[in-house]
Structures are given as C-alpha cells and as structure tokens.
Design goal:
The protein has one domain: Rossmann fold, CATH 3.40.50. Helices cover about 40% and strands about 15% of the residues. The protein has 4 helices and 3 strands, in the order αβαβααβ. Strands 2-1-3 form a 3-stranded parallel β-sheet. α3 packs across α4. The longest helix has 14 residues.
C-alpha cells in the first residue's frame, strides 16, 4: 500500500506483474478512485516472451527486463495498447518490483 504514495509523477493506471497477487492487492487498495490498477500474471508459460519482448525492449530503451515478471507485464501492456484498451492520453505507470 506504500508504493502509490512514493510515485511522484502523474498517472491514470498503474500496472504490475503478479505472482500471488499481493503487490497488486496492496497497490489497488491504496489508489484514489480516479486511478486503477492492472495486474499481469507471471505464472507458468510465456517463454515466447524472451525473444519477442525482452530483446526488443532492451534494444529500444537500453533496459534489460526480467523476463519472468517484468517482460510478461510489458507484453501485456503493449497488447492492451495495440487493442486500443487505453483512451488517448492515458498515463500508464509500469511498476518494476524486481
């Protein structure tokens, strides 16, 4: 529940990878009503993400992602963007927890 209070930039949606869902539950409980949280499962499967997301993200941004959690979250965020699930101008905060 402390994480949202530590974020010093404006955002509408906070995204995080989920194992058991504890971080997502705490983050969601601490948000004001105009904000929302979205969790992305980091459970089994998703080996395809290693090539599809991690290397591309590292190439574009110079940051290597942990493929078990963070890469799956980033893949999910980009998939939602591609589907048009976020209105134009939505400020997305991707929480990297490890």
């Amino acid at each position: 529940m402390e994480i949202p209070r530590e974020i010093d930039i404006e955002y509408d949606v906070i995204c995080c990878a989920c194992g058991t869902g504890g971080t997502l539950a705490g983050v969601a409980a601490a948000l004001s009503p105009e904000r929302r949280a979205i969790g992305f499962s980091a459970l089994k499967g998703g080996d395809f993400l290693r090539d599809e997301v991690v290397r591309e993200f590292e190439h574009r941004h110079g940051l290597q992602l942990d493929w078990v959690y963070v890469a799956k979250m980033m893949y999910g965020i980009f998939a939602l963007l591609d589907r048009g699930d976020f209105p134009a101008g939505t400020r997305i905060f991707a929480l990297v927890t490890g």
